Amino acid sequence: ESFLTRLRQTEPHLRSFLHVSDTVLRQANELDEKIKRNEEVGPLAGVLVGVKDNICTAGMPSTGGSRILEGYQPPFDATAVRKIKELGGIVVGKTNLDEFGMGSTTEGSAFQVTANPWDVSRVPGGSSGGSAAAVSARQCVVSLGSDTGGSVRQPASFCGVVGLKPTYGRVSRFGLMAYASSLDVIGCFGSSVEDAGILLQAISGHDKLDATSSKQEVPDFTSQFISLNLLESKPLKGLRIGLIRETLDDGVDSGVNSAIRGAASHLEELGCSVSEVSLPSFSLGLPAYYILASSESSSNLSRYDGVRYGNQVTADELNALYGDSRAKGFGHEVKMRILMGTYALSAGYYDAYYKRAQQVRTIIQKSFKAALDEHDILISPAAPSAAYKIGEKKNDPLAMYAGDIMTVNVNLAGLPALVLPCGFVDGGSAGLPVGLQMIGAPFDEEKLLKVGHVFE
Ligand code: GLN
Predict the structure, then answer these.
(1) Residue 400 CA, closest ligand 1 atom number
(2) In this predicted model, what pLDDT tens digit does every residue of 189-202 receive, in sequence order?
(3) I need a labelling partner for 231 at 20 to 30 A (CA). Which of 2, 114, 142, 393 fits?
(4) Rounded CA gap, 271 and 253, in Å?
(5) Tell me, what's the pLDDT at 283?
């Protein structure tokens, strides 16, 4: 009840949700009854979870933030959602996003603009801005987002919450609307590292419905939160941290820079050794990402043809039905991505763009591997600035894309990364949060959670 009251009070200002469930209290009461009868309830019993609206939920709208899916209600739950429900979690509603995850501000939603709870004249980041704002404003306990190029980590940074992007394949993508399938992963938001870890525990693991989900064993991420001795003077003794040189100074807001350097000193105080590490290919990540993500999306979005899902226009013949449904159903940014992707994949340009970008991706993977052979964890800012004003970059897509520089490389390499608040810069009435990004070796979420938990 307290969460729902808070949600009702804050939602008119934030607009984080596209849909709020009307069965939350009923589900909570049913859990209470079970407890009274001494029946088993799961470890997430009564935990309110927000779910990004590009993740399918049975019997609840799932629009992907797009008009083309307005009114669509999937007949099934995404695997991650199913697992949450099986453990007693309650889906409180569907959170706002940039259409199909394409954007960094949540202004690209076809339905509404979400505001940043720290300053409602600013963006919450994106594309999972609704999920980040909802946890930040305590409209729900934890939430699910998706991260193709930073969409969990950048909004976590802008909204001052914890955001966790798991290793590619750690969490099933079944029921996640595909944007760029080789990069997409479902991720977690929480107001503490522990909360994000508990949610990761719930949704991880192999799923036969997603052939790219990994068979790697899922460790117990959460027991370490209890066993860690936070009173020890150097709890992280012996850990080697690499501060990525290319992510500091040039093009980075000075307040962000000093917050990250401050975080590095704090890690040293906790016993880590911190050294700078160079990833010379870092700046290639952005162009490679936008070519690959657009290419994959141009193929993935061909399923929205006005026949199989959602909205259909009336037309005299089949091609007009496809064309008009897509023309009316997709927003501007989505159309631009489809055009860019189709161009990059077309005969004559394929080698120059798509193939080249794949080669760059391999170089980036190798340079991360080399850096992670020498270090336990790499650190960087999660974004080059704190949250900016709504409208500021709306008509300048390249400026918006440039803000993804800190996060896209991690998706190209398929690595896990954790973002957590590490300081403030001036802005708003209370300052604006800055996020520290910690990047780990494949399937080493456990270490990220440990270091993050000690750090906060
Ligand atoms: N901002 C990036 C994009 O628009 C990343 C989005 C995401 O991770 N879904 O593609």
Answers:
(1) 1
(2) 999 999 999 999 99
(3) 142
(4) 28
(5) 96
- Of the pLDDT bands very low, low, confident and very high (cuts 50, 70, 90), residue 249 is confident
User: Is ligand 1 within 6 A of the CB of residue 149?
Assistant: yes
Residue 138 contacts by C-beta under 8 Å, 6 or more apart in sequence?
3, 6, 191
DSSP string covering 400-429, please? HHHTTTTTHHHHHHT--EEEEEEEEES-TT
Given a contact cutoff of 8 angstroms between Cβ atoms, the answer to whether 393 and 399 are in contact is: yes
The ipTM value here is: 0.98
297 lines ligand 1 (CB under 6 A): no
Segments forming the whole domain that contains residue 104: 2-224+380-442
Residue 37 tokens, joined: 């009868």
In terms of Cα–Cα distance, which of 122, 124, 185 is closest to 157?
124
Q: Which of 95, 97, 99, 104 best tests ligand 1's pocket when mutated (most atoms within 8 Å of CB)? A: 104
pTM exceeds 0.95, yes or no: yes
Alpha carbon distance 82, 209 (integer Å): 13
Secondary structure of 291-352 in HEC code, one letter for each residue: HHHHHHHHHHHHHCCCCCCCCCCCCCCHHHHHHHHHHHHCCHHHHHHHHHHHHHHCCCCCHH
Q: Is residue 435 part of a domain?
A: yes
107 lines ligand 1 (CB under 6 A): no
Residues with catalytic annotation? 52, 127, 151
> In a 3-state reduction of DSSP, which class is residue 94?
strand
Q: In what order do the strands lie in the sheet with 186-190?
A: 17-20, 90-95, 48-52, 142-146, 186-190, 162-165, 417-425, 432-439, 377-381, 240-244, 273-277
- Which H or E element spans position 19? strand 17-20
- CATH number for the domain that contains residue 128: 3.90.1300.10
Is 153 domain-assigned? yes
Q: Provide the number of structural domains found in the chain.
A: 1
Cα(49)–Cα(428) distance, rounded to whole angstroms? 28
Cβ-count burial 177-186 (b if 16+ within 10 Å, e if not): bbbbebbbbb
Looking at residue 311, what is its pLDDT? 73
Residue type, 34: K
Cα separation, 359 vs 268, in Å, equals: 36
**Is the residue at 57 inside a domain?**
yes
Residue tagged 């013949």 (tokens): 317
Task: Return the H-helix or E-strand segment holding 145.
Answer: strand 142-146
**Residue 366 within a domain:** no
